UniProtKB/TrEMBL annotation:
<dbReference type="InterPro" id="IPR003591">
    <property type="entry name" value="Leu-rich_rpt_typical-subtyp"/>
</dbReference>
<protein>
    <submittedName>
        <fullName>CD180 antigen isoform X2</fullName>
    </submittedName>
</protein>
<keyword id="KW-0472">Membrane</keyword>
<dbReference type="InterPro" id="IPR050328">
    <property type="entry name" value="Dev_Immune_Receptor"/>
</dbReference>
<dbReference type="Pfam" id="PF13855">
    <property type="entry name" value="LRR_8"/>
</dbReference>
<dbReference type="InterPro" id="IPR000483">
    <property type="entry name" value="Cys-rich_flank_reg_C"/>
</dbReference>
<keyword id="KW-0677">Repeat</keyword>
<dbReference type="InterPro" id="IPR032675">
    <property type="entry name" value="LRR_dom_sf"/>
</dbReference>
<feature type="transmembrane region" description="Helical">
    <location>
        <begin position="512"/>
        <end position="539"/>
    </location>
</feature>
<keyword id="KW-0433">Leucine-rich repeat</keyword>
<dbReference type="Pfam" id="PF18831">
    <property type="entry name" value="LRR_11"/>
</dbReference>
<dbReference type="Pfam" id="PF23598">
    <property type="entry name" value="LRR_14"/>
</dbReference>
<dbReference type="InterPro" id="IPR055414">
    <property type="entry name" value="LRR_R13L4/SHOC2-like"/>
</dbReference>
<keyword id="KW-0732">Signal</keyword>
<dbReference type="InterPro" id="IPR041281">
    <property type="entry name" value="LRR_11"/>
</dbReference>
<feature type="domain" description="LRRCT">
    <location>
        <begin position="462"/>
        <end position="511"/>
    </location>
</feature>
<keyword id="KW-0812">Transmembrane</keyword>
Length: 546
């Protein structure tokens, strides 16, 4: 490339040279790069990260060398990066085998990525006296990784790290002293590290705020020995490889926990969740989605009164009482109950949620496919988003949503609704309304004002009628294209000649034609003649019988 090849762009910030076959950074033109913030050089044949002497580095924030041929990092290499501040350096997939002692001395990085490196001892020794906010050391599934022993982490005592990621490594013989050099760590990711248990009395993790233990082999939640992490605010144990038993009070030492993710863990509980979540009074977000059936009784989440987000999607709920299991959650704003087989005939199942803003009921069925005037939604007066897609609904009573006055997003897609159900939304204005994939064919003119007052509407996937019987809607459709979503995929279903034609392309002439006028005149003349004869006959009959 010529030195002036990049002179055109006036404020070039991001530059990609991925899979270009380059083997040297001298290939990159230096002109017009003074505003450069990120440079991506992945999947090439580069063997050194040393930047050219005059390369502009003042604003550089991201330098990506993943999947190259860089095996050794020298002081000279790192010296070329001295003018950068809070740089994110990606060396993933290079197989680093050596780092010159002192190469990273006094350096500060936003993020360092050595993913796929087999010998972590080399990395920790080479990073001595450095400061790294985020250190990524995960490996890949197809790499034959050696077991990690406690001695590997000794070099961590000589550096400062806030977040560390060790995904897919094998830990060998973890002891209470394995993590003694992790004292400055705020976040630790041990996803898929083949852990079956964490020992009690672990030294070095007292300040840890976020811990990820997903895709491991715990059989009981108590096996993580939560007392090791008294400052923890975020805990993720999702996709556990074995059925996870929540036990009783296994997390009671985590008084500061704000977020708990236990999704995809095959959890099954007949009486959830107060004993299992004991003492988690500051918990704000709980994810129990994609688990086995959970039995819920009255105030099932009494131990977590501060909850703001609760996700129970694809987890069958067995509510054994007429009272709501959520009734003490006065701060709950987001509730995901999609595909929970919820008993919607229970009018009180959603009581006690005064500030709920987002409710997802996708995949739950209502009695006889109908939402009656009296239904569980009527108490949710703060609701803004309501998702009722895939609920097999065939009708909605006109008064079903009358108390839900501030909704701005309603998803009724993938049901069996006809146009008559639109009347249930007459009190709402400026909402996003998804009516896609229902059984709507003809929309009467009386319903068009309801549609006109909404912000965005989707009618895709309905068997829409494109005959003169629907002429008022078709005219409205063309006049309100700015309100309609996915018009490119909104087609006619009737008549057969127009099936598959976009509604926006349909033009109908529904006035009376000349032939129609002729027949109308003939009909009126015949009718007049018949009327005259009828009157004459009537008068004659009347006089004959005087």
């Amino acid at each position: 490339m010529a030195e002036t090849a990049l002179n055109g762009p006036k404020s070039l910030k991001h530059l990609f040279f991925i899979q270009t076959g380059m083997s040297s950074l001298d290939f990159i033109p230096m002109h017009n790069l003074k505003n450069l913030e990120s440079l991506y050089l992945g999947s090439n044949h580069i063997s050194s990260i040393k930047l050219p002497k005059d390369f502009p580095k003042e604003k550089l924030k991201v330098l990506d060398f993943q999947n190259n041929a860089i095996h050794y990092l020298s002081k000279e290499d790192l010296g070329s990066l001295q003018q950068t501040t809070n740089l994110s350096l990606n060396l993933k997939g290079n197989g680093i085998t050596g780092i010159e002692p002192g190469a990273f001395k006094s350096t500060v990085f936003q993020r360092l990525d050595f993913g796929g490196t087999l010998d972590l001892l080399v990395i920790f020794k080479g990073l001595q006296n450095s400061t790294v906010q985020s250190l990524w050391l995960g490996t890949f599934e197809d790499v034959n990784d050696e077991d990690i022993s406690s001695s590997v982490f000794e070099g961590l005592c000589e550096m400062s790290v806030e977040s560390m990621y060790l995904q897919k490594h094998h830990f060998f013989n973890i002891s209470s002293s394995t993590f003694h050099c992790f004292t400055s760590l705020q976040e630790l990711d041990l996803t898929a590290t083949h852990l079956k248990e964490l020992p009690s009395g672990i030294v070095g993790l007292k300040s840890l705020k976020k811990l990820v233990l997903s895709a491991n082999k715990f059989t009981s939640l108590c096996q993580i020995n939560a007392a090791n992490f008294p400052s923890l605010t975020h805990l993720y144990i999702k996709g556990n490889m074995k059925k996870l038993d929540l036990g009783t009070g296994c997390l009671e030492n985590l008084e500061n926990l704000h977020l708990l993710d236990l999704s995809h863990d095959d959890i099954e509980i007949s009486d959830c969740c107060n004993m299992q979540l004991k003492n988690l009074s500051h918990l704000q977000s709980l994810n129990l989605s994609y688990n086995e059936p959970l039995g819920l009784k009255t105030e099932a989440f009494q131990e977590c009164p501060q909850l703001e987000r609760l996700d129970l999607a694809f987890t069958q709920l067995r509510v054994s009482t007429e009272q709501s299991p959520f009734q003490n959650l006065h701060l709950l704003k987001v509730l995901n109950l999609s595909h929970c087989l919820l008993d919607t005939s229970n009018q009180h199942v959603l009581d006690g949620l005064p500030v709920l803003q987002h409710l997802n009921l996708q995949g739950n069925h209502f009695p006889n496919g109908n939402i009656q005037k009296t239904n569980p939604l009527q108490t949710l007066e703060s609701l803004e988003t309501l998702i009722l897609s895939f609920c097999d609904l065939s009708s909605i009573d006109q008064q079903a949503f009358i108390r839900l006055k501030i909704m701005n997003h309603v998803d009724l897609s993938h049901n069996r609704l006809t146009s008559s159900s639109i009347e249930a939304l007459s009190h709402l204005k400026g909402i996003y309304l998804n009516l896609a994939s229902n059984h709507i064919d003809i929309i009467p003119s009386s319903l068009l004002p309801i549609l006109s007052q909404q912000r965005t509407i989707s009618l895709r996937g309905n068997p829409l009628d494109c005959t003169c019987s629907n002429i008022y809607f078709l005219e409205w459709y063309k006049e309100n294209m700015q309100k309609l979503e996915d018009t490119e995929n909104t087609f006619c279903a009737n008549p057969p000649l127009l099936r598959g034609v976009r509604l926006s392309d349909v033009t109908l002439s529904c006035g009376i034609t000349a032939v129609g006028i002729f027949f109308l005149i003939v009909f009126l003349l015949l009718f007049t003649v018949a009327l005259i004869f009828a009157v004459k006959y009537f008068l004659r009959w009347k006089y004959q019988h005087i």
